[in-house]
Amino acid sequence: MTELIFFINQVVISGAVLGCIYALGAVGITLVFGILRFAHFAHSELMTSGAFFAFLLAALFASWGIVTPIPLGFVVLPIAMVMSAIFALGIDKGFYAPLRKRGAKPVILLIASIGVTLMVQGLIRLFFGAGSYSFFETETKDVFRVDLAWLGSTRPLVITEPQLLMIIVTVVSVLALHFFLTRSRLGKAMRAMADNADLAQVSGINTALVVRVTWIVAGALACMAGTMLALDVTLKPDLAFNIIIPIFAAAIVGGLGQAYGAIAGGLLIGFAESLAVFNWTMVLRPLNGVLPEWAQLPATLSFVPTEYKLTVAFVILVVVLLVRPTGIFKGASS
Amino acid sequence: MAFSPKNAPQERFCAKSAVSKLTHASPYAHMPQNSPEYEPRVNGIRNGTDLVSSDLVIDVRNVSKRFGGLTAVNNCSLSVRRGSVTGLIGPNGAGKSTLFNIVAGNIVPDEGAVIFDGNDVTGLKPHQLFRTGMLRTFQIAHEFSNMTALENLMMVPGDQPGEYLGNAWFRPGLARSRETEVRKKALDVIDFLKLGHVRNELAGNLSGGQKKLLELGRTMMVDAKVVLLDEVAAGVNKTLLNDLASNIERMNTELGYTFFVIEHDMDLIGRLCDPVIVMAQGEKIAEGSMEEIRANPQIVEAYFGTPVEVA
Amino acid sequence: MALLELKHVVGGYGGAPILNGVNMAIEQSDIGVIVGPNGAGKSTTLKAIFGLLKVTGGTIEFLGESIANSLPDKLVPRGLSFVPQEKNVFTSMSVEENLEMGAFTRKDDFSETMQWVYEMFPVLAEKRRQPAGELSGGQRQMVAMGRALMSKPKLLMLDEPSAGLSPRYVIEIFETIVRVNQEGVGILMVEQNARQALAFASKGFVLAQGQNRFTGTGQELIADPEVAKSFLGG
Q1: Nearest CA in chain C to B294
Q2: How high is the ipTM of this complex?
Q3: Domain tally for chain B?
Q4: Do chains B and C touch (3 or more CB pairs under 8 A)?
Q5: Global pTM value
Q6: Which domain range does residue B117 map to?
Q7: Does a cis peptide bond (omega within 30 degrees of 0) precede residue C167?
């Protein structure tokens, strides 16, 4: 039993947290791709800058002596999301919109977005330096330990407060996104434009408005993902840059342009990564009693060493693309 | 000679001599094209061995092609005579594009055969057909935009010794002499098409009409037995179209090239083509001069449409 | 004052113009049909009216106001609708969502219009929850028309509504077009099968090389042998 709880702590909870972050990031990438038909590389910087907006706001709140029952990072999240949405709109207006107007090809926009990535990252380093920050310098990170002795486990189930909130917030946002896309006029217009941009225009849909809404949604979700990642680990200028590749993999695995696919892809890759680096010796140690001397389990026994975690996303990506080239949820192929 | 068909490689590259020789040896231009005693001039004169292989360069026999439930081409037979400019027309959905693509090797027919120059070429790929002397142009010109017009033409003949590293280093003489030949031929082609003033211009900078001329020039570099022209008029303005049409006429009358033309522009078809083949609903419905076609009420009806009847 | 009036319209996609002076006038009671040989500029005319390509000369007036080079999001609220020939439904969205998209520019309650569309195409009411991409070609054409009608247009423009349909559906679509017209919507459509379409046209326009070749009532044009011959050039 102890082993099972250990497995849940190490794989299920951390996989869910990672999966939530990937899913929120991948949804933004997939929405931007669906509407504007280019791979928005700078999405990682929307996440990182969003986390810094939240961090600044939290520090501001703390300096005013505001104390809240849940971590400040979550309290300021709505404001930070608004700021990120405005930031995303600004980037589009400043960089991508002029290129689109001149009829730039998707690859040009992709390169431009890499430029934006480097620029925003540089700006963050300029103001905050290259060091890392923690949301929990003034407050404590609550840890819930559920004692499971009655189940015969010597270990408690461990989940931190941010992790728990993170999962709840993600579930709520995904539901909100679902209702936005299926019930609201603008959400449907977004789906219509992703489906057939020419026909959307012919129907009288204000495509410029849809583009703006897309950036608002993508920016806000990126801010949420970035802040959560910073709450779970630490905040640094290359926070999301390091995970943009698995996030892209999640979007592609789910089927580019498919919001639900991106969520599924994000969770899949999140769980897979946690599972791949899980140390099986911890669970299988009791076997050492029955195994002969020469077959004793090594200290660490995992599918993939932790430092190669990134490869898991690629393996899944390659396998999915071989079996189902359009992704799990039949997305756009180009 | 520059513009001789593939099977006459022994003669060398001089457009002018080729032209004069042709006009002397064959009063082709004055011959009624559809007369039964019309000679398979090209092979006969230049080669002497393969005198009457066949009067037909392309012979499509009972070809059918279905896409799902739709029959695009239905048991269609037609042929292109050597030395002719044969047009293929028909209302939208008549299956002419499909048939054209079958001839060009882009689509494999479900039934029937395509005979090219006496050989069954059904199912051969476009690049294999290229080697046998069947060349097509594209509706949208395909050029190497970062090479000059001259270099574009010099690229066309494959298997140049200089393309191999070994030859380029150790047998430079061989590579050079072949390259000189190719270059001379390309210059002849450029002269013929009156593109001399832009021969060192990057192909990407040429006008739409000049690119189409270059496309024609490509077919001359390898002495095509038949040139398939796919919608040459598309996107070309009237003046350039005139120029293009007169070049096609000259290639046909002066150099003896055979053309198979698919085209929407009826005026161009009327000017260039004799005979004109009309397709409707996947079948050949008529063949004749453009005047005969225009006078045929059945064809007018096919174009103008008929009331729909529920079967 | 005509509902839609084109005078000497010149336009194209940059480069050489495709339209070299097109004239036409349509009333709300009219079924106008544009026919002509391939490459005559039939579809291009519709696209020029709908702001999908650049008009460089001449005038286009809708209800007496110039609309040349206005974009669809301005034209649809004014009462102009367009059904493209291909890719004219949102395949991943349900039939009902497709219709809603047609009403995007409307701020008022459009449930009555939707009811009207469902009465016109009862089969769509049955399949309202089904993705439009799963429907047959004829049903898709109905979705496309229904979508365009959701904005309550004064003029409905259709680009080859019968293309690729089986004869049974061609008749059905044509009958529906006549019914839509009887309900007070002007029609301007491009058709490949000239005889069929001119048969029920109140106004016919035969284009060639981007210009009007013949103009008249449908019956006049069918009766004139020169019209049919013009399809073969010369």
Answers
A1: C232
A2: 0.93
A3: 1
A4: yes
A5: 0.79
A6: 20-303
A7: no
